[in-house]
Specification:
This protein is α+β, with helices and mostly antiparallel strands and 168 residues long. Helices cover 35% and strands 26% of the residues. A hairpin with a 2-residue loop joins strand 2 (57-67) and strand 3 (70-74). The longest helix has 17 residues, at 21-37.
Length: 168
């Protein structure tokens, strides 16, 4: 019996973890188009940002997380290319799910990331069930599914988190 395609393992503590070719293809040809149309699970949106070297718009599917009345995006792969592009664009980006929203993404200091990551993991249960949440905790963060905020704080420096603000 074949192995189910689960989350890519990003739990290694390295600077940049590129996606496997399969995940890059799925993101580009499935994740981004479906999230733009709103045909993905709740909270999945297409993030569009100007590439820091090419200047062309780059898009990736990301998950919005709600925490204490604000919306956040957690960089599950750590120092991903989209994170670098957002920083180079001074936070200016577009989020799409049926419609475009001009936003400014504000990076949180490491000391403020753990509660948001904990909220992401809690909401993962709502999005995909207990098994999905457990897989994400282990594969993305290298943590057990019942990790305490203090445990999350110990690895939070490897996972940029951005607060989503409207840009008008």
């Amino acid at each position: 019996m074949g192995r189910r395609l689960g989350p890519q393992d990003y739990s290694a503590r390295v600077g940049y973890r590129p996606p496997s070719p399969v995940y890059a293809w799925l993101n580009r040809h499935v994740g981004v188009p479906l999230s733009r149309l709103g045909w993905t699970p709740r909270g999945v949106v297409s993030l569009e940002v100007r590439g820091r070297t090419s200047g062309r718009t780059r898009a990736t599917a990301v998950v919005e997380t709600q925490h204490r009345g604000d919306t956040y995006i957690v960089a599950l792969a750590g120092e991903a290319q989209w994170v670098r592009n957002v920083r180079a664009a001074h936070g200016h980006a577009v989020l799409r799910r049926r419609r475009a929203r001009q936003v400014r993404l504000e990076e949180l200091p490491v000391s403020e990331r753990a509660p948001v990551i904990a909220a992401y993991l809690s909401q993962a249960r709502d999005r995909g069930g207990e098994a999905s949440a457990e897989g994400q905790a282990r594969s993305y963060f290298g943590l057990p599914p019942d990790a305490a905020v203090d445990d999350i704080a110990a690895v939070a420096g490897h996972y940029p988190v951005f607060r989503v603000r409207s840009r008008r």
